[in-house]
Amino acid sequence: MPGSRCDTCRHAHIIVGFRESETMIFCNYAYDQLLAVPFKVRDCSNYADKNRPTWKQMEDLALPIRETTTSKTTGFRIPILLPEEALAEDE
Questions:
Q1: Does the predicted TM-score (pTM) go above 0.85?
Q2: Residue 38 in 3-state DSSP?
Q3: Alpha carbon 21 to chain centroid distance?
Q4: 81 pLDDT exceeds 90?
Q5: Domain residue extents for the chain
Q6: φ, ψ of residue 56 in degrees (nearest 5)
Q7: d(CA 79, CA 89)
Q8: How far apart are CA 59 and CA 53, in angstroms?
Q9: For residues 48 and 44, what is the distance between their CA atoms, to the nearest angstrom?
């Protein structure tokens, strides 16, 4: 049987004893007050996975990319024909 959704939630405060029945789960999503959760949760609208980074953490890890201007033209390059090849194409 799968565990509770609270096991991986960022808002969960979980206290585990020595027995499986000695588990207390609290949710602190609403106004930073602890709300006791007396059952295993299958789905929650306020779920935030603690294993995924937040937007701020991703911004801090991101590499800065600077815009640079180049004098190169974009697009496909046109091959330059040597004089011998140009004469061969004319024939």
A1: no
A2: coil
A3: 34
A4: no
A5: 1-41
A6: -65, -40
A7: 14
A8: 10
A9: 9
